[in-house]
C-alpha cells in the first residue's frame, strides 16, 4: 500500500501558460510525487522522466541482447490476439487495423526482410493477463480517475502495450477524451513531436481537419517540440497537447491514458465543445424528438464518451472520495491510497465541476434521470459540509 499526497492544500488549478514553455528532463529516481504533481500535472506541461522502468519485470523478460525477446513473447503470449495497424494503409486519417496472433506478429518482427510496416498497438495485455505483473504504475501517475473507475466497475481500461518496428508511427492526434497520457519505453527509441494547446489550429485545413503528419517545412510558423525518448524513459503528455510519434528503433512501450482533478475541468470543456459542434452539425433536426439522443450517440462516436457517462464517472469518484475522507480503507487506483490534502483537493475540484454541470442545459432541461440528479445534489451537499 503506497500513499500519494501533496504537501499543502490546493484549491484551484493555476492558469496554464505555454508561451515560454520548454520540455524538462528529470530523473525518476529522485522525483517526488508532490513535485511532479505541482510542476507538471497542475501546470499541464510535458516532461521526460529518466530511469522509470529499471525494476520492472518486463525490463528483464522482454529484452534480449538489447533488443526484443521474440522467443519470450511467442512462448508467453503467442496464442493471444492483438490489434495490429498497417502504417502503409490509411482510412479516414487512421491506420487500417486487423487482429493477429502475437506469435505471428513476432515472426513478422523478427524477419529483417519485412514487406509491410505493421504496428501492434492498443493491446490490453494487463487486462488479459492480470496476474502477469510485467510492470508497475509509477507513483507519479497514481492519481488516475479513468482507470480507477474502469477497475472499480470492471469496465474497459486505458492501459496498453505498443510494439512496433523501426519506422512505424502514430498520426498527429490528441488523446482520447483530451486526457493526459504517459508512455514508458521498455526497449527501443521514439521520436515525439508535441504541440502546445492552440498550435494545432494553425495546422487545420478549411474543413477543420489536421494533417496525417506534421511537416515543419509546410508550417513554418507553428511552435512545436521534438523529443527523443530512450529505453527506460517515460514521457508525460498533458491535456490538449497534440502529438505524433515515430519508432526510430524496434520499440516496446507501455502507455496509459488518465484523468484526475487537475484536468477534469478541461475534459468537461472539451466534451461541451464537441457536443456544441455536434448540435450545430445537425441543427436542422433540433425540433425532432430524437435530437438530444442522436446528439449523444454522435458525441460518443467523436469524443469517446457521452454526457451520461461523464456524469457517472464524476458521481463514482465523488462518492468514493467522500467515503475515503470519512476513513474508508479504499484503494484509489492500483493499490494506491490518498492523503488528506490530496482528498481535499479532489473534493474542491469535484464540487466546482458539479456546479458547472448543474448550469448545463441538459441538466436544467431534465435530461438526467431523477436518480442521477439526486446523486449529484447529494454529493454537492456532502462535500460542502466536509470542506466547511
Radius of gyration based on Cα positions: 22 Å
DSSP summary: helix tally? 12
The percent range for strand residues is 15-25%
Show unreliable segments. none
Class of secondary structure makeup: alpha+beta
Fraction in helix? 25-40%
Instruction: Give the spatial strand order of the biggest sheet.
Output: 2-3-14-11-16-9-8-6-7
Number of strand segments: 17
The major β-sheet equals:
9 strands, mixed
| Mean pLDDT rating | 95
What separation lies between the terminal Cα atoms? 30 Å
What is the chain-wise order of helices and strands? EEHEHEEHEEHEHHEEEEEEEEHHHEHHH
Specify the overall morphology.
globular
GO cellular component, one term: nucleus
Family: Belongs to the JMJD6 family.
Catalytic activity: L-lysyl-[protein] + 2-oxoglutarate + O2 = 4-hydroxy-L-lysyl-[protein] + succinate + CO2
Domain JmjC: 126-275
Task: Give an overview of the whole structure.
The chain has 388 residues and is an alpha+beta fold. It is built from twelve helices and 17 strands. The chain has helices at 33-41, 58-61, 70-77, 102-110, 125-128, 145-152, 264-281, 291-303, 307-325, 340-358, 361-364, 370-387; strands at residues 2-4, 24-27, 47-50, 63-64, 67-68, 81-91, 94-101, 118-123, 159-164, 169-173, 180-187, 190-195, 225-229, 234-237, 242-247, 251-258, 336-338. Helix 7 crosses helix 8 (291-303), helix 9 (307-325) runs antiparallel to helix 10 (340-358) and helix 9 packs parallel to helix 12.
List the helices and strands and how they pair.
Blueprint: E1 2-4, E2 24-27, H1 33-41, E3 47-50, H2 58-61, E4 63-64, E5 67-68, H3 70-77, E6 81-91, E7 94-101, H4 102-110, E8 118-123, H5 125-128, H6 145-152, E9 159-164, E10 169-173, E11 180-187, E12 190-195, E13 225-229, E14 234-237, E15 242-247, E16 251-258, H7 264-281, H8 291-303, H9 307-325, E17 336-338, H10 340-358, H11 361-364, H12 370-387
Parallel strand pairs: 1-17, 2-3
Antiparallel strand pairs: 3-14, 4-5, 6-7, 6-8, 8-9, 9-16, 10-15, 11-14, 11-16, 12-13, 12-15
Helix pairs in contact: 3-4, 7-8, 9-10, 9-12, 10-12
Amino acid at each position: 500500500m503506497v500513499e500519494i499526497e501533496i504537501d499543502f492544500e490546493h484549491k484551484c488549478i493555476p492558469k496554464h501558460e505555454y508561451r515560454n514553455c520548454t520540455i524538462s528532463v528529470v530523473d525518476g529516481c529522485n522525483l517526488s510525487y508532490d513535485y511532479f504533481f505541482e510542476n507538471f500535472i497542475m501546470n499541464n506541461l510535458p516532461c521526460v522522466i529518466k530511469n522509470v522502468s529499471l525494476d520492472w519485470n518486463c525490463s528483464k523478460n522482454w529484452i534480449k541482447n538489447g533488443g526484443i525477446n521474440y522467443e519470450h513473447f511467442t512462448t508467453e503470449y503467442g496464442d493471444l490476439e492483438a490489434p495490429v495497424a498497417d502504417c502503409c494503409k490509411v482510412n479516414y486519417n487512421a491506420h487500417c487495423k486487423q487482429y493477429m496472433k502475437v506469435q505471428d506478429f513476432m515472426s513478422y518482427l523478427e524477419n529483417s526482410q519485412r514487406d509491410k510496416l505493421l504496428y501492434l498497438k492498443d493491446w490490453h495485455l494487463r487486462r488479459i493477463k492480470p496476474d502477469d505483473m510485467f510492470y508497475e504504475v509509477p507513483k507519479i501517475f497514481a492519481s488516475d480517475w479513468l482507470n480507477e473507475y474502469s477497475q472499480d466497475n470492471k469496465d474497459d481500461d486505458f492501459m496498453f502495450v505498443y510494439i512496433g518496428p523501426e519506422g512505424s508511427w502514430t498520426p498527429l492526434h490528441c488523446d482520447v477524451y483530451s486526457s493526459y497520457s504517459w508512455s514508458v519505453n521498455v526497449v527501443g527509441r521514439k521520436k515525439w513531436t508535441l504541440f502546445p494547446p492552440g498550435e494545432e489550429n494553425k495546422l487545420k485545413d478549411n474543413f477543420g481537419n489536421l494533417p496525417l503528419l506534421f511537416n515543419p517545412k509546410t508550417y513554418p510558423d507553428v511552435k512545436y517540440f521534438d523529443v527523443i525518448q530512450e529505453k527506460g524513459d517515460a514521457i508525460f503528455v498533458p491535456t490538449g497537447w497534440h502529438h505524433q510519434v515515430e519508432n526510430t528503433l524496434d520499440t516496446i512501450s507501455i502507455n496509459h491514458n488518465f484523468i484526475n482533478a487537475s484536468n477534469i475541468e478541461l475534459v468537461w470543456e472539451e466534451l461541451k465543445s464537441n457536443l456544441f459542434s455536434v448540435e450545430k452539425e445537425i441543427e436542422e433536426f433540433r425540433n425532432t424528438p430524437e435530437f438530444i439522443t442522436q446528439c449523444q450517440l454522435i458525441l460518443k462516436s467523436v469524443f469517446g464518451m457521452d454526457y451520461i457517462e461523464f456524469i457517472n464517472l464524476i458521481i463514482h469518484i465523488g462518492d468514493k472520495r467522500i467515503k475515503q475522507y470519512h476513513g474508508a480503507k479504499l484503494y484509489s487506483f492500483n493499490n494506491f491510497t490518498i492523503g488528506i490534502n490530496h482528498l481535499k483537493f479532489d473534493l474542491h475540484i469535484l464540487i466546482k465541476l458539479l456546479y458547472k454541470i448543474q448550469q448545463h442545459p441538459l441538466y436544467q432541461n431534465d435530461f438526467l434521470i431523477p436518480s442521477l440528479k439526486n446523486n449529484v445534489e447529494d454529493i454537492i451537499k456532502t462535500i460542502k459540509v466536509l470542506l466547511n
